[in-house]
Structure formats: structure tokens, C-alpha cells
Specification:
alpha+beta; Muramoyl-pentapeptide Carboxypeptidase, domain 2; 6 helices; 42% helix; YslB family protein
Length: 177
């Protein structure tokens, strides 16, 4: 069901209203969850990552764009630490519109994606945040393997089709002269 759900909406040319998503995320959820909002959103992000596992960093970047979470960049990758940077219009919009925007959903999502990829515990935290970007560091604990972990089949990412514009040399010549 998860792959079909994702494919149906990711390939849809009609985009969801930004207002509807922001009202749910930044108005309703914080009021419902209260002081526990950040922690619950972190675990919700981990749950979403289990529902929507991706196969590669490229797919992860595409998924973030499609979710409207922003532009994700793998800044640095080492044996026990992966650092991501999240930028773009969604980050700036939320940062300027909301006094203290919460990016824990994205943080939890990255923690779980890394855990699944390395089959061990991964935890993430925001290490830098300003109005235009944030940095998320995911620590990988290779000494804590995931027990009973059955890796899920990655979803098949729908990559946006790009229109190919014909070169000026490819345009048919007018032969009616």
C-alpha cells in the first residue's frame, strides 16, 4: 500500500496547497501535542521513514523535495556520522512565518533512514539552524545493531519528468520560401 500511496501523490501534477499542510503542521499539531510536540514529531518522522524507505541519497533528496520539506544536501558522510543540510523555500517560509519552527519530523525521518541503511541505531539532532537553513547530524552506532530488523523494500521514487526543449538547430526550417 505504501508504494501505491506514494506513487499516486508524487506523480500527481496537482500539488497540495501549502496552506493546508502548514495549517496542520504548524497550527493544529503543536496545539494538540503541546509541550511534547517536538518529541512526538521526531518519532513520527521515524515512523514515516519506515513506511517510506528510500534506496539512495538521491532518492532521499527527491523525497524531501516532493514532501515540501526543502532541498536536502548530504554535506558530509563518515563511518559514524552523516551531516545533512536542509535549505530552500519551505525552510525559509516556515522560519519567517513561525516564531520557533519545528523541524523534528525531518530530523526523525533522517535518523530512521540512516538506521535502516546501516542496520544499526541512528539518532539525529539539529546542530545549526537559522532562517534559511539547518544542519542535521545523524550519529550511527555500529555497536548497536537493529535486532529482528527486516529491511523493507524501498519505495520506487517517482522522478519528475523534465521537458526537453529543442535546440535552435533542431527546429524545422521553413521551406515555403
Amino acid at each position: 500500500m505504501t508504494n501505491a500511496f506514494y506513487s499516486q501523490f508524487a506523480g500527481n501534477a496537482i500539488k497540495t496547497s501549502v496552506l493546508s499542510v502548514e495549517v496542520l503542521r504548524d497550527a493544529l499539531l503543536p496545539n494538540l501535542l503541546g509541550d511534547d510536540s517536538s518529541g512526538i514529531l521526531y518519532w513520527a518522522g521515524k515512523d514515516l521513514a519506515r513506511q517510506f524507505p528510500v534506496a539512495s541519497n538521491e532518492d532521499l533528496v527527491t523525497f524531501f523535495e516532493q514532501c515540501g520539506w526543502g532541498h536536502l544536501i548530504v554535506e558530509k558522510e563518515a563511518n559514524d556520522l552523516i551531516t545533512y543540510e536542509l535549505t530552500g523555500e519551505p525552510v525559509a517560509r516556515r522560519s519567517y512565518a513561525i516564531k520557533k519552527p519545528d523541524f523534528m519530523l525531518e530530523t526523525g525521518f533522517l535518523a530512521e533512514q540512516v538506521s535502516a541503511r546501516f542496520n544499526c541505531v541512528g539518532e539525529a539532532k539539529i546542530t545549526f539552524q537559522n532562517k534559511m537553513r539547518l544542519r542535521i547530524a545523524v550519529t550511527i552506532d555500529h555497536n548497536q545493531p537493529l535486532l529482528g530488523h527486516d529491511p523493507a523494500t524501498p519505495i520506487e521514487i517517482v522522478h519528475p519528468e523534465t521537458e526537453i526543449q529543442p535546440d535552435a538547430d533542431d527546429t524545422p526550417a521553413n521551406t515555403d520560401a
